[in-house]
Design goal:
By secondary structure, chain A is mainly α. Chain A has helices at 2-28, 36-54, 62-84, 90-111, 138-160, 162-172, 174-179, 184-209, 217-231, 236-257, 262-276, and strands at 126-128, 135-137. In chain B, 48% of the residues are buried. The chains are: A mainly alpha, B alpha/beta. The A-B interface holds A 159, 162, 165-166, 168-169, 172-173, 175-184, 284 and B 52-54, 73-75, 78-79, 83-84, 86, 90-95, 99, 102-104, 106-107, 110-111, 151, 155.
């Protein structure tokens, strides 16, 4: 029980960072980014490619992976999604769905269908807690610390900088933001770039914690959905709490109901949330 | 009167098949207060939106400080010193008062003067200072209008277009806000107001323009126009 609690809480930090990018895009561009899970996995594979080519530690690979992912997100938004936003909800949705398929197949092409893992020395480390028998897996702890740190940093960025405030203003009232001097298509591009950066950060942590496949994206898309549904669209603080709830639900579900029902426990929470408070805990 | 700061020539704006502004022309002298009156649907707000770059015209020309700004995107027009206070205030309701004002200073030129502008806005509307950490969505209608005006001032503009700021406000609040507009104008900002109340327009502005069915049908110095003249133009009789 103690172990399930610890793991659930630590996992929460990781889930929050997995989902936060999707929440940003939901809140600002009003777009359901069906490729978000694949962006996460793409980030992990990019890190793998950089680490393999240069021998860099997965964390050091951020120096290359993050700018590349930002640029990619910016380009996707500017060249594809922005052009379709005036034509209803479906076209951009289909573009993201198409991108999801393209990413999965490109990864399959370049990295094969084999399981991959971002190796580091944290894998086997753990911290014993007294004589309770419970341990803190080192990698889980790193996931949680980095996840929480990034969410807090992102929250600061949104509150303290002109670009961050512009992103929030656009999500509040697009036209009013334009009148204040905000170039809305540009801000959409930046928002997607930021979402991609968070996806890449999440992806590297996921790749270091678990094994990944080119098709793993859908799994993380569902986690993102869970985080967004529970936390409320566009709420950054909400993703943190939602990640925690979702992580705990899964691990406690696994403890009480058996490992085979771990995922189900998470989805039940989503369903309950949709039934009780469909706009999420921190909906704005 | 001095030279024109803003001129609008033969402007047409469509919403689909509907012609909202149909050949409107307008000239706003530097440093003055000009009011635009007219019935609902006369095209006043659309004219403002078009001048501010929120909607694009089909034909016509808009000149600001001698420069052709026709069809420029809104974010470029505001950077030139022309700011719109939109109808219904349109505050960022999920942001605090101070964050709204922060967004008002978004343009490159305005960012440098953020501290000074903020101080001026708080002096003009002390209640905004008291409520600076409250979400603007929690404020009263009049206070939201103050946020919207303050937000426009943060851009340190040379001209502000006020789109029916008196809409839905109590008379005392309206009186107070109009006094502030006079102050703002005295500080060197040219102002154009959309107003339903003809008497108030004549009292406040140096020039009054009447719009009907998408055109400016009457324009003159407020002192020269009688209420009767305006009412005739207003209803098109």
């Amino acid at each position: 029980m103690a172990q399930a609690l610890i793991n659930g809480i630590l996992l929460g930090g990781l889930y929050a960072i997995v989902g936060v990018g999707m929440s940003i895009i939901f809140g600002i561009v009003k777009l359901t980014n069906l490729a978000h899970g694949d962006f996460v996995i793409l980030g992990a594979y990019l890190s793998l490619a950089v680490s393999t080519a240069t021998g860099l530690h997965p964390f050091a690979s951020f120096a290359i992976v993050l700018p590349v992912m930002f640029g990619l997100g910016f380009a996707i938004q500017r060249t594809m999604v922005n052009r379709l936003l005036t034509r209803g909800d479906e076209p951009p949705l289909l573009v993201m769905f198409g991108l999801s398929i393209i990413i999965q197949n490109l990864l399959l092409q370049f990295f094969s269908a084999d399981a991959q893992h971002l190796r580091s020395t944290y894998d086997i480390g753990s911290i014993k807690i007294g004589d309770t028998g419970a341990i803190i897996p080192l990698m889980f702890l790193i996931d949680c610390i980095i996840g929480v740190a990034i969410i807090l940093a992102l929250n600061m960025f949104m509150k303290k900088t002109y670009v961050g405030n512009a992103i929030r203003a656009v999500s509040d009232d697009n036209t009013a933001a334009r009148i204040m001097g905000v170039n809305v298509p540009l801000v959409y591009g930046v928002a997607m770039g930021v979402a991609m950066v968070t996806a890449a950060l999440a992806g590297v942590l996921v790749g270091m914690t678990y094994t990944i496949y080119p098709t793993s994206g859908s799994q993380y898309l569902i986690i993102s959905f869970g985080v967004v549904v529970i936390g409320g669209m566009g709420s950054i603080k909400g993703t943190l709490v939602a990640g925690l709830i979702f992580g705990l639900a899964q691990l406690l579900g696994s403890y009480f109901l058996g490992t085979s029902l771990q995922l189900l426990a998470g989805y039940v929470i989503i369903l309950v949330m949709l039934a009780v408070k469909p706009r999420g805990l921190f909906a704005k | 009167m001095s030279e024109a700061m803003l001129t609008v020539e033969d402007l047409q704006v469509n919403y689909g098949d509907f012609i909202a502004v149909n050949g409107a022309s307008l000239s706003v002298p530097c440093g003055e207060i000009v009011s635009v009156v007219g019935t609902n649907g006369a095209g006043k707000s659309t004219l403002f939106d078009c001048v501010a770059g929120v909607v694009k015209p089909v034909r016509g020309k808009v000149t600001f400080k001698g420069e052709d700004i026709t069809g420029l995107p809104a974010h470029e027009i505001v950077a030139k010193g022309l700011t719109l206070v939109p109808q219904g205030s349109r505050c960022f309701i999920r942001m605090t008062v101070e964050e709204n004002l922060f967004m008002g200073s978004y343009t490159k030129k305005a960012r440098k003067g953020y501290r000074d502008s903020l101080k001026k806005v708080y002096e003009l509307f002390p209640v905004l200072y008291e409520k600076r950490n409250d979400l603007s969505g929690s404020l009263s209608g009049g206070q939201r209008q103050m946020v919207a005006i303050g937000r426009a001032l943060m851009n340190a503009p040379e001209m502000i277009l006020f789109d029916e700021i008196s809409l839905g406000l109590a008379p005392t609040v309206i009186k107070d806000i109009y006094a502030r507009i006079k102050e703002i104008n005295a500080g060197g900002v040219t102002a154009v107001l959309i107003e339903q109340d003809v008497k108030r327009s004549l009292r406040t502005s140096a020039q009054c323009d009447v719009m009907l069915k998408g055109k400016v049908v009457l324009s003159g110095k407020s002192g020269d126009l009688t209420e009767e003249q305006i009412k005739l133009a207003y209803f098109g009789v």
